[in-house]
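Need the bound structure for pyridoxal-5'-phosphate, inputs here:
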Amino acid sequence: MNVYEKYQVSQVINASGKMTILGGSRVQDDIIEQCALGAGNFFEVKELLDKTGEYIANLLDIESAYIVNSASGGIAQAISAAICRDDHHKIMNLYDPSYEKREVVICKGHNVNYGTAIEVTMRLGGAKVVEAGYANECTLESLKGCMNENTAALLYVKSHHCVQKGMPSPEDFINLGHQYGLPVIVDAAAEGDLVKYYHMGAECVIYSGTKALCGPTSGLVIGKNDYIELIKKQYAGIGRIMKIGKENIIGLTYAIEKYMQTPELTLQQQMERLKPFNDLLNQLNGVSAKSVQDGAGRPIIRSEITFTKKDAKKISALLKSGDIHIYTRDYKANLGQIEIDIRDVNDEELMMIYRRIQELVEE
Ligand SMILES: *Cc1c(COP(=O)(O)O)cnc(C)c1O
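Answer from helper R.:
Posting the output first, comments after.
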């Protein structure tokens, strides 16, 4: 009996990307082996976190790195670190209203929901959320107008979820924070470039272990040494509630090393992999498929499928409700399009997706 039968859960093909609701990434066997090494042995966890952090910092040639349980946990602790600094009493009394210096400024167009609203994560870290600007526009002047003596930090969210137009560049945002002597935290959860925002000068940058890094459930915080040391102090406070297990500390460290050594598929190679799939789809009546690059500019190519005779939303719903639940990327479904993200789809699954679409359009 396989795991789907045993627990009577749905079998899933994930053509939607790194979706937390589907479990993030497909974790490769060699990474699972490393997780097993972590699970089956004891460590002094604090030392393990320090040393794996140093190891990752060396790999990336940066000051400091620290593994956490998830990007969300990293964001919350990066914020509580800004509020508490190294004050143990504050760490233990994070939400005490008499500590007023807890405002965290975020562009309104960055205040997104990635499964939970980022403001929930910010408040968990003790922030009083201060939105700057408007949904479609946030100028440096708007940001300046939000800063005062109670500002503890600035948060920049780099994500396809965010409004892409009318927002300040990360460089300008980081420089502004520094002009005011404030730490700048960057949520780069789904980004693949691990050093870009660090080199722009951000105090800390947060990544999800299960997204671009293809690791187990985990998160990575990188940044300046002093700031990462402040975040580590949160382990005695809210950090304990969001602890990471030894298995995933070892697993993520290995996954990062592997990620650094594995050349990314070029855009050309990704297009080549998609071509036979698109060619098959283009032979179907009322269907056209082509390769398109990620809307937020990441080096990811997906198949964009346009349905002229069927409702794309219905097709997507039917794909999800067959014997095997096929999840596609549906941000453009109201425009008659669905996208296929093949990063976690194997060749056999890709053919299954094609055959199911064929069935649905020929019905
Ligand atoms: C996925 C995501 C997160 C959360 O990452 P987890 O590791 O699942 O906690 C935070 N911010 C953004 C922009 C994301 O896309």
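Comments: The chain has a mean pLDDT of 97. The radius of gyration is 22 Å.
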